[in-house]
């Protein structure tokens, strides 16, 4: 099928907040430096819901959302050397070109090569989209658009993985699980014996807990306003629970009291700017580090007294857990195959592409971590 359009099913977000519609979409062949991937499984992440809600300043409509998936390369454009048809892959919203200033810096996983194009829903080559419906262009999303049976991605945005890995599981390595693990291992670099606080016990927060447990944290304090989150969190390594709703004093004060002056590391896994403040302020004076993982809506801003930083607390953030996507996603797949990291435990629901809107509803229910769609 190289060089030809493919017509397939995709969930199209025509407008913010309007139910997605399963449409027949034409997917153009990959151009130079592009890869067309048959998506077999995709999960939903809260960031898809965030963009769909209309609160993402980079959200463009109509678009095809989705960024946590796995599939098989169908065809490749000119000059693509690192993958070929038949390869099993995970699309990576965080690209890795290994050539740009950022990739070569050794200081960040934020590749600069295609980010400007992926932020405006187009491909870099001709600044056009590869999706259309009856000639009308449909925007890409995060350089991945995995809510389609076929998608086109930049070659720097696709990780080749072990073909024996179950795609219905490892699709989660496209976003949520690496984000939480990497926030602990790469961004915070939590040491053995540390006291860790996690705000928000969804998939991201639980992956932080898993990472902190593996790093040898002595106490892992989970904070959530939904009591139902607590039982499950124990299995991921959370040792203590706090529900802010059950206390009158500010949560930062309560945590300082519980930990003899504050935690060593805190992680905000919600996207709430007042919780981000609390997460910083519950850190121990002199060294406590707070990592922002949650994505807050357009227009939201954080605040704290500068004195909090003057007295040695550190405020950081992380995207995709600081992992270099093309290099490290395959290693995470191998870790899963060796049972060194969990994936199955995060999959609470399964649906099909046709049930996309129901899957989005599930995402907002407390019981759902990840819902995986069979395409
Ligand atoms: P989720 O909705 O499953 O989890 C959030 C949890 O926070 C829920 O359990 C909820 O009950 C809890 N919560 C809500 N308000 C709270 C409050 N005021 N205090 C305490 N707990 C509260 O979401 P998720 O899939 O785990 O994602 C978490 C966030 O991370 C989202 O904002 C998502 O967009 C973001 N994210 C960021 C990256 C990144 O690379 N930085 C990657 C993936 C996801
Ligand atoms: N367009 C959004 C940006 C949202 C955001 O911060 N995205 C995270 C990934 S969330 C995955 O679920 C990220 O990696 N950001 C770095 C980047 O380059 O986008 C907004 O709010 O503007
Ligand atoms: Zn995500």
TrEMBL record:
| Localization annotation | Cytoplasm
Describe the location of the Alcohol dehydrogenase-like C-terminal domain by residue ranges: 204-329
What does the record note on quaternary structure? Homodimer.
Chain ranges of the Alcohol dehydrogenase-like N-terminal domain: 32-161
What reaction does this enzyme carry out catalytically?
A: S-(hydroxymethyl)glutathione + NADP(+) = S-formylglutathione + NADPH + H(+); a primary alcohol + NAD(+) = an aldehyde + NADH + H(+); a secondary alcohol + NAD(+) = a ketone + NADH + H(+); S-(hydroxymethyl)glutathione + NAD(+) = S-formylglutathione + NADH + H(+)
CDD domains, per the entry: alcohol_DH_class_III
Q: Which GO terms describe its biological process?
A: formaldehyde catabolic process
Q: What PANTHER family does UniProt report for this protein, alphabetically?
A: ALCOHOL DEHYDROGENASE (PTHR43880), ALCOHOL DEHYDROGENASE CLASS-3 (PTHR43880:SF58)
Sorted UniProt keywords = Cytoplasm, Metal-binding, NAD, Oxidoreductase, Zinc
Q: Which Pfam families match?
A: ADH_N, ADH_zinc_N
- What this protein is called in its record is S-(hydroxymethyl)glutathione dehydrogenase
Source organism: Salix viminalis
| Enzyme Commission identifier(s) | 1.1.1.284
A single GO CC term for this protein reads: cytosol
Cofactor(s) of this protein: Zn(2+)
Q: Which GO terms describe its molecular function?
A: alcohol dehydrogenase (NAD+) activity; S-(hydroxymethyl)glutathione dehydrogenase [NAD(P)+] activity; zinc ion binding
What does the sequence similarity comment in the record state about its family? Belongs to the zinc-containing alcohol dehydrogenase family. Class-III subfamily.
Main localization is cytoplasm
